Amino acid sequence: xxxxxxxxxxxxxxxxxxxxxxxxxxxxxxxxxxxxxxxxxxxxxxxxxxxxxxxxxxxxxxxxxxxxxxxxxxxxxxxxxxxxxxxxxxxxxxxxxxxxxxxxxxxxxxxxxxxxxxxxxxxxxxxxxxxxxxxxxxxxxxxxxxxxxxxxxxxxxxxxxxxxxxxxxxxxxxxxxxxxxxx
Length: 183
Fold this sequence. Notes:
The chain is an alpha+beta fold and 183 residues long. Helices cover 24% and strands 16% of the residues. It has helices at 2-19, 59-69, 106-110, 137-141, 167-171, and strands at residues 45-49, 80-83, 94-97, 116-118, 125-127, 148-150, 155-157, 177-181. The strands form four sheets. A two-stranded antiparallel ribbon has the order 1-8. Strands 2-3 form a two-stranded antiparallel sheet. Strand 6 (148-150) and strand 7 form a beta hairpin. The protein is globular, with a radius of gyration of 17 Å. Mean pLDDT is 83; it is low at 1-23.
């Protein structure tokens, strides 16, 4: 029992540490959109993950890359699974991570080519591959490192919430990923 609570406390402290981490490129001079973060519309939905439910199978990564890129390649997945990154948790500890769909999205504000757009249905900040020039400003601006680079296309991508029907949620065998809609 104490081992379980130790896992919970360690996982909780890691999550809090990551949540209050300062963005690596938090500089308004890098904003290229002519608007302030406060002027962005809020997200209408996002994904949440329960790391105590995750079994580490990485099905979410495979289905994400298959759905978006047509290949089973976890490196292209918009969801990432990390196993005990600090070697402090029990063997069961798996830390999946997804785009936070930030309300004050630095990635959106940093894109000077208007390749980042906001989905009207979900509020997700998504990258239009037709407009992406592969400059990497979105990656540099993201405090969570959730932007994915595809070497074969020389373009960037990020979670688009699958237009409101996230495939990672549908195919997660442990039911660890939830799609939350705000009303």
